[in-house]
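Students often ask what a holo structure prediction actually looks like on paper. The answer is less mysterious than it sounds. You provide the chain, you provide the ligand, and the output is a string of discrete structure tokens encoding the 3D arrangement of the protein together with cobalamin.
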Amino acid sequence: MNGMISAERRLRTVVSGLSCDAHLWNLVCLRLLLEDRGHQVTNLGNTTPDAEILGACCTELPDLLVISTVNGHGRLDGLRLIRALRAVPALSGLPVVIGGKLGIEGGNGRDGRDHTELAAQLTAAGYDAVFDDAAEGGPEAGLARFDAFLSSLVPRQATFAGGRSRARAAAGPGAAA
Amino acid sequence: MDDTDRFTAFVRRAADAGHLVVQHRMGFGELHRMRAGLRAVRDADATTVGTVTLDSYTRCHDDGAALRALRERPADLNGFPLLAHGVPAVRTLLQEVASADFPVQIRHGTPLPLRLLRAMAEAGADATEGGPVSYCLPYGRVPLARAVAEWSAGCELLAARPVPPHMETFGGCMLGQLCPPSLLVALSVLEAMFFREHGLRGVSLSYAQQVHGGQDLEALAALRRLAGERLSGSAHHIVLYTFMGVFPRTGHGSRRLLADSACLAVAGGAERLVVKTPAEAHRIPTVEENVAALAYAASVAEAEAEAETTTNAGAVHGAARVIAHPPTPPAQRPDPTAYGIYEEARTLLDATLETGDTVGACLVRAFARGILDVPYCLHPDNANRARATIDARGALRWSRTGAMPVTPASTTAAAPVTAGQLTELLTFNRRRFDLREPGRLYGSAS
Ligand code: B12
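The corresponding structure tokens follow.
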């Protein structure tokens, strides 16, 4: 686990569930996890309509949007959200990640599709990273990869003061530890 | 008595015959899979009722998404899209599988239930579940007052049917975990009173297994007593849910937790048990996994009931009983604790009922004033000042009570504040049951 980060590395993040997902312990835990590391969090809560997520991102212009979903509809609703979000010019460069239990097959690939294909589909549609509980190593490995991803982001003020470019990768995973 | 619904009557007959009714949760996108699943459950080696669990789109009134998913990727739906199939198709399905010996319940999770309740009634469902609080606060952002209004109208619509369906409270589950038993008991009784107030007669009261067997026994006794006092004069039964929080990941851990809940149901006098399967932590269970879980829970319950009658008929629960049921006997029978759950639940209930004239109005006011406060619940109408923790004995306790008329025990640890501490509490049962020897973790998450 990474410790607290310095003030210049402090990210402004938005955490949200998807429109039809009622689960909220995942959101509570992710919020605490980000705050424990010194980041600032706005938690939009569960069953959040796409429009509200886009609205919050447009007003807050965060350094990172974290989508968390576990009810199994993440594949369908996650794709719908990211397509709408990338269509907004101001948000086309916003770093966005998604994670949780994304499909209802638990990695079993019951009908032949597995999480690798799902991750590829979500990334192709515009997510910067996908943290699927069903991937190799389970949820714990996903959270470790998420930590590394966080360390690779720098706040946008640290790159261009007030600028709108994508937060840039810094010295690599673990640099902020 | 000919307006008694088939669900209420079935559970009563089973109880009179000494059988625990066991029930699964199951919802598939396609009709043919739903039908096959219900038939397999009906034919399981257990006293079962059927369940149809609805998908998230239907729960959230996103009919377009439900219809699209049903057409394009039905296997990706996390439940049964009742409205997308339409009432006639669902009525045919229920006519084919449901009967007086296999009544079917529809489980949904909808804060605004009116159109769903109407469709269920028209399709001939024997039972449903929920409540204005338990299907609102955990499920999103619909204002509590709106949920109360729609639940009132929905219950009255059902009550006006020739045979009103059975209604079960979901108030004994709030968020699945980390809600202390006294609040679960109070909410379950309040929701049952709400159903009664709106004309429903066949009701059941839920309670979900938490982290400490003795404490759960105390809670079930409190629920039975309070329900008896407040719902006198008509039939009701108690339904226990196998643990509804973060589930063990291993097969042995899952089965042991399920076995404990079956024993708890028998020892605590519940008439019905809603089970979980070893797939819980990972994915939606298959039909076979559900059938196996039902048969296993039933066998454990039968053994427990037998042991209870042979050892000390009529004596206090928890006296030393030497029984074993294959293949995973619980390590020991817990004694009921004496935390004062009944008194605390009664205090919460009375403080709530003092705030207005109808149960519905009282619930809205009590949450607005923080008299009722569900730990960690993000809903805008929940005060979210209360917190829970697990004490040195491994029982669930208040660590902060906000404006509720109860006091946190002086011995309990401070409320968790980091992700690591909260994860410890959430995974308490998972870690306890996934270990080979249960009890080793006992008290370590204080
Ligand atoms: C508690 C619970 C509920 C409660 C939720 C209360 C609430 N409002 O939060 C209730 C009872 C209401 C509920 C309802 C439902 N549930 Co539920 N629920 C659970 C349960 C038992 C525990 C979830 C939990 O609290 N976990 C604790 C948190 C902290 O952990 P987590 O959710 O796993 O999240 C972690 C990881 O996923 C990961 N992660 C998550 N998001 C992200 C994002 C990023 C970026 C990263 C890096 C990591 C990450 O990190 C998180 C924190 O550690 C799980 C099964 C289980 N896990 O044991 C089922 C489960 C999630 N539920 C499930 C389902 C399907 C439902 C329902 C649709 C009903 C149904 N058809 O069965 C409804 C939802 C209705 C809706 N509109 O969405 C399924 C999902 C199936 C799937 N995805 O394949 C599960 C797996 C159960 C099952 N096996 O069927 N549920």
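Chain B touches chain A at residues 56-57, 59-60, 62, 65, 69, 73, 75-78, 109, 138-141, 175-177, 246, 279, 282-284, 376-378, 417-420, 422-423, 426 (CB under 8 Å).
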